[in-house]
Amino acid sequence: MHPLDNVIWNALTTVDARFAESHGSARRFPHEVTALGAFSGPAEPGFASLAELLPANGVVALFLAEPAEAPAEFEVVRAIPLLQMLHDDRRLGLAAQNYVELAESDVPEMMALAELTKPGPFGKRTRELGTYLGIRREARLVAMAGERLRLPGYTEVSAVCTHPEHTGNGYAAALIGALVGKIQDRGESAMLHTAADNVRAIALYERLGFKQRAMLHLLVVRKNGGASKAGNPLQR
Predict the structure, then answer these.
(1) Could you tell me which residues come within 8 angstroms of residue 108 by beta carbon, excluding any fewer than 6 positions away?
(2) Confidence band (pLDDT; 50, 70, 90) for 234?
(3) Of residues 94 and 64, which shows the higher confidence score?
(4) Can you give the pTM of this predicted structure?
(5) 38 class by beta-carbon count within 10 Å (0-12 exposed, 13-18 middle, 19+ buried)
C-alpha cells in the first residue's frame, strides 16, 4: 500500500503522531487542531473504535479508499468523492507576491477567512500543523494557505482560500507556489485534496504541477448524542 492511500493514519502514526488521540484501530486529531481522523484497516472495526474515541456529538472527517456506510451510532454529515493530487516536483517560477508567515496572533483572522470561504476543517490550533502563509492588503488578511498532514516524504497543502473581494489576483497560486518550494527544499513532495467536483480549483492545481493520483471518499460523521448540533462542525 502506498503511504498516501491511508494518508491521515500514516500522518498520525509518524510526523503528526504528537497530535494523535487513539483508541483501538482509530486515531484522530484533537478537534481544536482539525476534524480529521482515520482507521488503520477495515471500516467496521474502525467505526467501533471511533465510537469509543469520540464524545457525544463529536465530529470526525475520514478519507476512505472505498465508500462505507456508517453504523447506527453515527450520523452522516457529508459524503463526497475526494480527489487526491500529487505534485510532479518541478520548480515553479511564479510572479512574486508579498506574503507573510502567519503567527498565533493571526488565528482570529485566519478562522474568520476560513469561515467565509469554507476551504475545509479549520480550527483554533490548525496553524500548529505546519507553515501557514498569508497575503495582506491594507493590513487585512485576504488570502492564505498552509501545511496540514505531514508524513515521511510528503506534506499536504491545505486551507487555500482567498477573500471573495480579492479573487483574480493570483494570490492562491503564489501562496501554493511558495509552500511547494518550501516543501521541496525539505526533500519532500507536495500533495493536496479537493472535492472531485471543484473544477476550478482542480484546473488551478493542475496548472501548478499537481497530478491526479487517487479518488478517495470523504465521509464526515457525528457520533449521536443528546447535546445541541448547532453550528458548523467542520469550522471548529
Answers:
(1) none
(2) low
(3) 64
(4) 0.92
(5) buried
Look up residue 168 and give its DSSP letter: T
Pairing assessment for the beta strands 154-162 and 189-195 based on DSSP bridges: parallel
CA distances from 8 to 20, 28, 55, 132, 216 (A): 10, 8, 20, 19, 12
| 85-211 to CATH, choices 3.40.50.880, 3.40.630.30, 3.40.50.150, 3.90.230.10 | 3.40.630.30
Q: Do residues 220 and 68 make contact, with C-beta atoms less than 8 angstroms apart? A: no
Q: Which fold has domain 3-83+216-235?
A: Aminopeptidase (3.40.630)
- pLDDT computed for residue 32 by the predictor: 96
Identify which of 116, 81, 58, 68 has the alpha carbon closest to the alpha carbon of residue 195: 81
Report pLDDT for 96: 64
Distance in angstroms (rounded) separating the CA atoms of residues 96 and 209: 18
Whether the Cβ atoms of residue 144 and residue 130 lie closer than 8 Å to each other: no
